[in-house]
């Protein structure tokens, strides 16, 4: 019996590794009634080299699928070993692994057997059994099946912490090319439903403390990068509209891993550099937390992010007229735009300057990366760098390794100017 389960686990965990959208932050489900586990303040999620999150049991319910999406290893035309868990098997595995401290929660996705509702109903049953029969308070992330009914989505939200619907390919044309049987509407509709339902349940919760939780960690999505010709601009504009229109918590960017020699896809030897994924995540971070607009980062003149420098530095170099920022007077939103100053340091600066004027030494202590920031700020009315440096020169200084220098080395350099 265990051999059979182990084999299924091997196949279905391996098939799930291509899905990167399993971060578990943002849920605060409490352990009540002496139940089992709790999500605490964000489960520790560790990623293996191939992007797999190892703190969650991350599996597919099945790798049978009626669809034939060219970019997917589970596509029906792919000649691979197929298998499926029963609902009870997934429940038992989760409880066993949890008790042994292997995992802190469950990430459950699935190929689509028969139809969307048939598959979604099984995913929901797993979550329902865990919550109601085992009083399981660990984290559950269910992948929603595009095209599943509103009733099932509603039920899923009652038991899962997070739900996600994959947008899969950044543009509709890309989806038509690689997954012609699929319809973008089937992905957008459940996202819209979840958004409305989450808002409704949150307002209910404010009025009635005992109102049930509904997907408390919100919804997320994932798109595959590099399977089609989309630019970073196409990708970021799609992500931006998902954040704006559906209140998504996260959009994940999954570099295409060659799984087929289909002529519509990049060749088997090519894969998307990890750096491109990183740059997209950095840009995404700027949109969500630093007040940047998407068209400030990518536009027709610059449809792709610069691979050599991070997007914030890229923006600063293209907008030198916005600098220098006076660290003792500027608003928080301007300080946040300075390369080398993160959210935490920016907040500390605003707090600390209430009590004294800040100098360079203070900034260093507040965690500012002066090796970058020094080109873009003034402090106590003084410049750290020559004022006449061009964008090209600053870029050269930073890329040539001066960004690795310590503050004291930078001071020495200043004295030489
Ligand atoms: S529907 Fe999902 S599992 Fe099936 S082939 Fe397409 S991407 Fe893969």
Could you explain how this protein is built, in words?
The protein contains 16 helices and 9 strands. It is of the alpha/beta class and 417 residues long. The chain folds into 2 domains: 2-215, no CATH class; 311-416, no CATH class. The chain has a 6-stranded parallel sheet. The chain has a 3-stranded mixed sheet with strand order 7-8-9, with no helix packed on it. α2 (87-99) crosses α3 (116-133). It is globular, with a radius of gyration of 24 Å. The termini are far apart. 40% of the residues are buried. Bound molecules: iron/sulfur cluster. Iron/sulfur cluster (SF4) is lined by residues 65, 67, 69, 72, 74-75, 111-112.
Describe the protein's topology:
Elements lengths: L1 H15 L39 E5 L26 H13 L5 E5 L6 H18 L5 E5 L6 H10 L2 E3 L7 H7 L5 H24 L11 E7 L6 H15 L3 E6 L18 H16 L4 H4 L13 H8 L6 E2 L5 H4 L7 H10 L7 H6 L4 H4 L3 E3 L2 E2 L7 H9 L7 H10 L1
Helix pairs in contact: 2-3, 3-4, 4-6, 7-8
The protein binds iron/sulfur cluster.
The site of iron/sulfur cluster (SF4) has 8 residues, from loops.
